[in-house]
Specification:
- The protein is built from 11 helices and 5 strands.
- It has about 260 residues and is mainly alpha-helical.
- The strands form 2 sheets. A 3-stranded antiparallel sheet has the order 3-5-4. A two-stranded antiparallel sheet has the order 1-2.
- The longest helix is centred in the C-terminal third of the chain and has 36 residues.
- The protein starts with a helix and ends in a 13-residue tail after the last helix.
């Protein structure tokens, strides 16, 4: 690091300048410092906080991390960085990326399951219409009554109750849903995916609209991935400047 760089890094920042650089209030800067979201802040003999270029860089990194990883993950990662606990920070970072990967895989599976439902068209065979009791639905769908009861307990099916007898009765809509559940379970789809497919079918009922909604979710996941990539890049740049990374050179200014 040259003399001018050393002078710049040692220059004190007023809290108002730091807040203005990030577009936040001075109180927000104080909150970040107290919550461990900025490096430790020294104080003058008179009690004023002393901010430096490192705090300005940390603030840039923090804002990128919040935008990319959200408040659910970013604070834990950033606090660990400022504690010098790189292992915990990287572990939390991996969890954040893995969470997004799971979401992406779930949407992909839901889309595949939905296409399976559309391709199979379980309603193509003529079957009885109107309200059916559970035994009749069991025969029509080709599953045991115990399976239908289990799916009901999971919230997948919503049969009504027959007045007077209390027997379960399945409307045409619920019978179609039972067909869908049976089809997807035979295809090996897990219950969370089945639940998502049923939710889409119940809310829209229009295959093209379901496809559109799922495609929109995939695009949003892509945008979130890009934001996380940008945030992770900002984190790396900060660590490269101020922390010793395994296998890398010592941070600038280190002995």
């Amino acid at each position: 690091m040259g003399a001018r760089d050393e002078d710049a890094s040692a220059r004190r920042w007023r809290i108002t300048d730091l807040a203005r650089s990030a577009g936040v209030s001075t109180q927000q800067i104080r909150n970040y410092a107290e919550d461990g979201l900025l490096p430790a802040v020294a104080r003058t003999d008179s009690g004023y906080r002393v901010f430096t270029a490192r705090h300005a860089d940390a603030l840039v990194m923090l804002r990128e991390m919040i935008d990319g990883h959200g408040w659910g993950h970013a604070p834990a990662i950033v606090r660990a960085v400022h504690r010098g606990d790189l292992e915990t920070a990287l572990d939390a970072l991996d969890h954040s990326h893995a969470e997004l990967s799971r979401e992406r895989e779930h949407v992909r599976m839901v889309l595949g399951a939905f296409e399976t439902v559309v391709a199979k068209r379980p309603d193509t065979k003529p079957i009885p219409r109107g309200n059916l009791r559970i035994g009749e639905v069991s025969t029509v769908v080709g599953v045991r009554t115990s399976a239908l009861r289990f799916w009901e307990r999971r919230g997948l099916l919503r049969p009504s109750r027959e007045a007077g007898t209390g027997y379960r009765v399945f409307s045409d809509e619920e019978r179609r849903m039972a067909h869908v559940v049976a089809l997807l379970r035979r295809g090996g789809y897990p219950f969370p995916v089945v639940e998502s497919v049923l939710g889409e079918l119940r809310s829209t009922g229009n295959p093209e609209r379901v496809r559109h909604e799922l495609a929109a979710r995939q695009r949003e996941l892509h945008r979130r991935s890009v934001r996380r990539l940008r945030a992770s890049s900002a984190l790396y740049q900060y660590l490269d400047q101020y922390a010793a990374l395994p296998g890398g050179p010592a941070p600038a200014g280190a002995e």
